[in-house]
Design brief:
Strand content: under 5%
Number of helices: 4
Structural class: mainly alpha
Order of helices and strands: HHHH
Radius of gyration: 12 Å
Number of strands: 0
Shape: globular
Distance between the termini: 19 Å
Oligomer: single chain
Helix content: 55-70%
Length: about 70
C-alpha cells in the first residue's frame, strides 16, 4: 500500500522494472523512455498519468484506492 504516492511510486516502479532497461519497458508500454525516467524520478509532466497507466499495464499492476473507515 502506498501511503505517500509522490515518494513511494518512483520506488515501486524501479523495483518492478528489475533488470529490464527503461528503453525495454518503454518500448513494450508504448511510451518514450524519458517519460518512464520522469515517472521513476518523480518528475511531473502533462503526459505522466497516461504514461503511468501504460507502464503499469506492462507490469500487470492495478492501482486501487482504500478509504479509511470511521
Amino acid at each position: 500500500m502506498l501511503e505517500d504516492l509522490a515518494a513511494d511510486l518512483p520506488d515501486l516502479l524501479i523495483k518492478l522494472r528489475g533488470q529490464a532497461t527503461r528503453k525495454q519497458v518503454a518500448e513494450v508500454a508504448g511510451v518514450r523512455p524519458v517519460r518512464l525516467k520522469e515517472l521513476e524520478e518523480g518528475l511531473k509532466h502533462p503526459e505522466g498519468l497516461e504514461a503511468l497507466g501504460k507502464v503499469l499495464r506492462v507490469y500487470n499492476v492495478r492501482l486501487g484506492v482504500a478509504m479509511p473507515t470511521r
